[in-house]
Amino acid sequence: MKTVTEFPRKVVEFPDMGIVMPDGCRLSARVWMPEDAGNDPVPVILEHLPYRKRDGTIFRDQLTHPYFAGHGYASIRVDMRGNGDSEGLMDDEYSEQELQDACDVIAWAVAQPWCNGNVGMMGISWGGFNCLQVAAKQPPALKAVISLCSTVDRYADDIHYKGGCLLIENFGWASTMLSYSSRPPDPLIAGDNRWRDLWLTRLENQPFLLPLWLSHQHRDAYWKRGSICEDFSAVKAAVLSIGGWHDGYRNTISNLVSNIEAPVKGIVGPWIHKYPHYAGPQPAIGFLQEALRWWDRWLKGTETGVEDDPAYRAYVMDSVRPARWHPERPGRWVAEQQWPSPAIKTRTIELLPKGGRPAIVASPQTCGLAGGEYFPFTFGPELPGDQRPDDALSVCFDQPELTEAIDIVGAPEVEVRLSSDRPQANIAIRLCDVHPDGASELISYGVLNLTHRDSHEFPRALVPGETVSARVVLDQCAYRVPAGHRLRIAVSNAYWPMIWPSPEPVQLTLSAATLALPLRPPATGDEATFAEPEGAAPWATETVRAANSERHVDRDEKTGIVTLSIADDFGAVRDLDHGLVNGSIARETWTIHPDNPLSASGKTHWTQTLSRNGWSVRTETWAEMRSDAQNFIVSARIEAYEGEKIVFERNFEEKIPRALV
Predict the structure, then answer these.
(1) Among 164, 321, 337, 594, whose Cα sits 20 to 30 Å from the Cα of 260?
(2) For residues 569 and 463, what is the distance between their CA atoms, to the nearest angstrom?
(3) Cα–Cα distance between 633 and 88 in angstroms, integer?
């Protein structure tokens, strides 16, 4: 990445600008703006997050926000209430209070003498979600949004549920937020005599969100609120949607470009859950330059040509050898002037011959261990590996060897007719690229809780032995399968630890299956180009402890229990400006017996540390989830330390009835 230190306008930074909400709660904001903005007012760009501007997102903030400020914007990075250096309490993600706070920050900004009255909002993940949700509320000054790695549907396409199946990430993310939000404000911001009171109040009111999320197992009003797919027309701001093929949020870009009535464009690269000017796998792109074109057009009225950009630009990845991490993905950029594209045609493939014998699907509960993380994050061993171990535990439909390359661009679908021997059953379908030597690379996958075959809101139990029809939609993808390779469609009724298992072992009888494959004429070269990545001067730090990620799968040959162990040490660094040292370590274990879905268990343990000179604090959080046939059983614990002295401890425990999950 090219570091830019000279900008058209000189930048000034305010590390803690207090923004007082109508109820008196003070939010802490880090603000960059042109030095002369008071005399020459500028538009505002807002990023509103719970992830701590002082020591959490500072790496990416430092690259991004000064860059925007140097090009004529006031860039505001706010800690949400109850997090980082802000006052108040947080009770859930995307709450009405959170969204109203963002609207109030926008109103505050446009009232400042350095703002010209126009606002853009941006973010990745949480910030990508809430900027779309705030746009749907239509605050008058909000003219444009850049949303990355986000969703339009909080139930069907987030970290909670997918295809009506319970995602393990539902538990994982609740554990993460318990740890993230348990940290105190920085005494240099909150004050030596105040930070501790704010911290203890925060800890006493800290929610463990898993029971809340588990209490809404169907697509009810809880999930509909904030899901902009309920009314795409509510979004009037211009939307640039960006995502990555190695991220969990692959479908949003297509959904937005297909449905938003306001000006909208989409870009999907080969990336994990990161901003694309520093993401991997390579190639990264000049995201900040692309963002400036968007901001300049919709916030300054400058003709930048963004209206004429293709509706959908996607990176078609070439076939590679399966690996848990790819530093780069060869391929090419394709461009579609409209989306859905008339150039993409559907090829229909019957997987089971008519009148032939049905296929019996009865996978061991360990099927899925090659699937990787839901949204890879660490530049480490989190991508899907060679699929052959999972293929061996699935029913596979191998297609003839390809005589010429094909480009799959879009969302494959599989229509099935099947019966189950149990009233609740899951199905997972993977589309794989099989190399001539048998190596199997994951292209896309989809899962469906078969009780949700007609509705996520009103599921119906299966009648054992009764044949039903269902449609499984796989994730959006863009992938070139070369000549000499084969397509494989792998079907299982377990996908651990991506989804929680059914309460009983299940056997599916598959009597018909039809694949609908979206094919685009193969591109001969790049149809779109981007500038090389740029960024402002990087965060100045000293490494105290190097980062490291590990992943192990172990099978106890005596008991048969299989355990996936994950350790992500994010390291510890010292900020060379204000001296704060922050570090974190996440540990996860997922255990299951191949024959017993009720043996499934997930455990997490997070450690967070903050220190400066003689001051230090630490939080330890633990969480566990298991189930019996009737209930999910969850527990968690927080311990908080000042130095080595424990100053707070709290336990959580709850049972939540299963509802066709």
Answers:
(1) 164
(2) 47
(3) 30
What value does the CA radius of gyration of the chain take, rounded to a whole number of Å?
A: 25
Among residues 167, 383, 371, the alpha carbon closest in space to that of 271 is found at 383
Helices and strands in the chain: count of H runs, count of E runs: 11, 33
- What pLDDT was estimated at residue 640? 98
> Which residues in the chain land under pLDDT 70?
none
* Residue 344: alpha-carbon gap to chain centroid: 27
Q: How many CB atoms lie within 10 A of CB 17?
A: 16
**Side-chain-side CA neighbours of residue 643 (13 Å):** 4
DSSP string across 532-566: PPEESPPP-EEEEE--EEEEEEEE-TTT--EEEEE
Residue 47: predicted pLDDT:
98
Let me know: does 462 contact 450? Beta carbons within 8 Å.
yes
CATH domain 1-149+232-315+522-538 topology: Rossmann fold (3.40.50)
CB-CB neighbours of 528 under 10 Å: 17
**Angle between the N-to-C axes of helices 126-137 and 96-110, in degrees from 0 to 180, rounded to the nearest 10:** 70
Q: Which residue's structure tokens are 């030597």? A: 437
CB 650 within 8 A of CB 637: yes
pLDDT of residue 356: 86
The H or E element that residue 292 is part of is: helix 287-299
Residue 518 phi/psi, 5° resolution? -80, 115
Domains of the chain, residue spans: 1-149+232-315+522-538, 343-518, 539-655
CATH number for 343-518: choose from 1.10.287.110, 3.80.30.20, 1.10.10.10, 2.60.120.260: 2.60.120.260
d(Cα 105, Cα 299) in Å, to the nearest integer?
Answer: 17
d(C-alpha 453, C-alpha 540), whole Å:
52
d(CA 361, CA 368): 14
Short-list 337, 332, 360, CA closest to 509: 360
Give me the sign of the Cα torsion angle 153, 156, 159, 161.
positive
Residues paired with 487 in a beta bridge: 433
Distance CA 620, CA 585 (A): 10
